[in-house]
Amino acid sequence: MASIAVVGQFADIQGRPRKLWTQSLSWVLFLVGIFVYTQFSMVRHKENPEDRVVPSVSQLYHGIKGAVLEPAEEDDPLDDNATLAQRLMHSMLAKDTLSSGGRFFAALLLLIPAILLGLHMAVFPFAEAIFLRFTLFFDKIVALSLLPILFIAFGIGDWAKIMLMVIGVAPTLMLDTYNLAKAVPREQVVKAFTLKSSNVDVAYRVVLKQILPQIINSVRLNLKPLALFLFAGEMIVSSDGLAYRIGIMRRHMGMDIIIPYILWVAVLLFGLDALLKFANRRLHPWA
Amino acid sequence: MGLAMRVLETEAAVEAQAAPVEIALRDVSVSYAVGNGKSKTVLSKLNLEILAGEFVAVLGETGCGKSTLLRMVLGQEFPTTGAIHVDGKQVTRIDARCGYVPQKYSLFPDRTMIQNVMYGPENAFCGWFGRLLPSYRKFRKRLRAEAEEQLLRMGLRAGDFNKYPHQLSGGMQQRVAIAQALMMKPPVLLMDEAFSALDPTTRASLQEQLRAIWQETRPTVLFVTHNTAEALLLGSRLLVLKPHREGSEESNVLLDMPLPQSSDPIAVREQSHEFLELREYVKRQAYGASSRSKQDFTEQETDESGDSL
After folding, report:
1. Rounded CA gap, A42 and B80, in Å?
2. Residues 6+ apart with CB under 8 A from A155
3. For B110, which of A186, A198, A210 is closest by C-beta distance?
């Protein structure tokens, strides 16, 4: 009877799990994942001790150690007496993270004008008339299909990948900002004008300020698509970067590097998302 | 009509000679396209002059065009024909000639109570670059003191000044909204069902305060309401609009009359024989003349204002 009651609690919409329960339950799937992986790895290694498809914990450790402390194959090796800081700074992981990170943040910066354009489309009727239909159409173009054109226009360097990310995410962000700004009650705009606001005041100090928390949330939701376009670009043509390394390692069946890299990307995106969430809460206590 | 009404009309006539016209509507008509090449007329051939310092309460059933009238004076909508002048100039856009207190969304949610009240004067006197001047801090300090005074006058407590709108009750929000509008010292104050979402006690308290402010500073007020008692107790003039009938050439104004003025508290006036007589008179004039059945109006009055005639 007691077990039925426990199961019943899990199916109860009005259930109120205690904080300790909530915290514990949130880690369960991580632990299950690790357990399943290690069991699966152990089974495979019993059959073939040299198995590289599901690396053992020891293989993963050596893979991570090499990625974090050793330079990439294409780079010059470090002196034997290099310090830990030097090893970390010149490691394969640091090099790839910095390359991908640079592209990622360059694209994020270039998305700011897109957000502002979305705002202007919502607030200024003439901007709406000029840009809205085009943006709606442009949003339907599959960004990856533009990749050959981008490589021709921007070369095979970083700009093609950055533009792919911008073109892939900008229309969504623009339209999201447009919808958010349109949803600001008309009374607020009218009230602002009666309080001697200029057009710029209304756009930036009234509308933008009110929707900024939601825009930040929209950016948070678009972090993964942004990373997706970055990976697509890097996997097709690149000489460094996290996705480039995963692509190279795939050829060598280097799962001891690929798995830590995948988790590292997830941790970076999770951290950035958490940072934006935290900043949003601190900067906009009213939201 | 009793003796009081006749005395009032005489008083109003004397006032009319002294005060300039603040809001003027000349042959104003408003029509909307409703599809299939047809249009619906909301207001027809409306001619109206509102004098400086008048408190005009606008009553009427849903769809009679009272909110449209207010939005046109504000500059948010434009007449299909005719022209509207406020403070001697034609209304072509929304500007600071009119203060505005809507029923909801009246405060900026991202600003605290005090910031909301300071927003207008800061815009008016500082602009974007004025904030960089050394004198800005001094100005802001003075402005804050003025804003605090205005909020205290509206019956708000100093401990709440740094709260955001979502932390305030509906009544407090409307008090702040009125203070915010009054900080700009606009010649005209437009209130669109500003108290209709409030509970009766808060509503009565705000009515009393608005009345006191109007008597003290005498802005021209255009107050749109569904509540007959509120209109009669607050206004110095009553304007009752009726819905336009298609094909009719008639104006929408059903009743335009001065209202009794008294220094007695609203709660006392509400119980007076004169008020009850006046309410009965307005009821007869406004609703007795309508084509709709008496039962329909009673239901509407009860539903929308909670103040059945």
Report:
1. 81
2. none
3. A210
Answer yes or no: do B288 and B201 share one domain. Answer: yes
Is the pLDDT assigned to residue B291 strictly greater than 70? no
Q: Which of B104, B120, B165 sits opposite A195 (nearest CB)?
A: B120
- Does residue B161 lie in a domain region? yes
What is the C-alpha to C-alpha distance for residues B49 and A149, in angstroms, rounded to an integer?
65
The model's pTM:
0.85
Same domain, B34 and B143: no
pLDDT for B236-253, tens place per residue?
999 999 888 877 778 888
Cα separation, A123 vs A250, whole angstroms: 49
Q: Is the pLDDT of residue A281 over 80?
A: yes
Q: What angle do CA B302, B303, B309 make, to 5 degrees?
A: 15
Q: Tell how far CA B235 is from the center of its chain.
A: 9
CATH number, domain of B220, equals: 3.40.50.300
Residues of A in contact with B128 (CB under 8 A): 200-201
CB-based contact A286 B164, cutoff 8 Å: yes
Average pLDDT of every residue of chain B: 84
Lowest-pLDDT choice from A146-155, B109-118, B174-183: A146-155
